[in-house]
Amino acid sequence: MKKLLLSIILLSAGLNTFAQDRNITFYVGTQDKGANSSITRCELNLNSGQITLIDTINKSVAPGYVAISPNKRNLYAIGSDNKVSAYSIGADRKLTFLNSQPSEGMGPCHVSVHSTGKMGFVSNYGGGSFSAYNIGDDGKLSAPVYKEQYTGSGPNAKRQEKAHAHFATASPDGRYVYVTDLGSDKVMNYSVDVNTGKLTPNAAQPFFSGKPGAGPRHLIIHPAGKRLFLLNELDATVTACSIDKKGVITAIKTYPTIPADYSGPTNTSAAIHLHPNAKFVYVSNRGHNSITAFKILGNGELEMVDQQTKSIATPRDFNIDPTGKFLIVANQSTDNLVVYDVDAATGKFTFKHESIAVKLPICVAFL
């Protein structure tokens, strides 16, 4: 009996050690256009918070933004050569190039995958256009099945001289697709049929109009599908919104992402992410060089709970690991990744350590 108990204790200890030391894979996109421009594969140790660089793949030119399919079998990346590329993710987490398609516009800046995994969406910032693709069972991208060239401008003459599509995502139920146009202060609203690859303007609301000059950049939608949080780049704000059953967006309240008395270099907000427990929203600021945390209140409004700046330098992107334990910041101006501890109960986060070097990192995507 004593030997049995000892064996159980040792086995339990071994399993706990394994659980504590397990690693999670993530991929980093870069703005680097050099010969070694690569998607970087890393592992995050969920016990220590240490990051290890595993390998790189350089089949795309400046693969800035990357997105992973819902089934975790494929990764998609936009490139400065105005293409979007598909990769398979092996059992060993290695990437294998599958195919690429034209982005149908200049300066693609974002790619995303529909919740069914059947379609992909690309936003072309430079050209101000949006493209949609079917995705085959093998993960390959079809030729574009939908293209739209946006028009319009805003009051910021330097940044809103024309349309600048910046981000696209589908609603959690998969019925709608929302595309931000920083240039015209609009969020385009589409109804989508993934079985036919057809997108049509949402009859209930073809577009949502934001504050003139705000510059909508990215957005996140709460898993319940009733709340949307829109990050405005130019005026450094986040707008809490509701979404009804017809996919109609209605603004609730807008909040600053940096202190009112900030007087440093020009600030532009960059990325927005939801904590895995869906209770907190985090945004990044370039110029102020910070990450700001908001608590989601019961009525859909937000309450700022924390803001940190230590070792943060031009955070074009950041992300929170799926367990909600660590936040990784991609520092575009210092070519490195920084790790923060996250308190899932309060939403607050504390600096842990500076980590590996990655040239011009601008996207962090967890597998």
UniProtKB/TrEMBL annotation:
UniProt keywords, alphabetically: Carbohydrate metabolism, Glucose metabolism, Signal
Organism superkingdom: Bacteria
Signal sequence region: 1-19
TM region positions: none
Family: Belongs to the cycloisomerase 2 family.
Name recorded for this polypeptide: 6-phosphogluconolactonase
Organism: Dyadobacter endophyticus
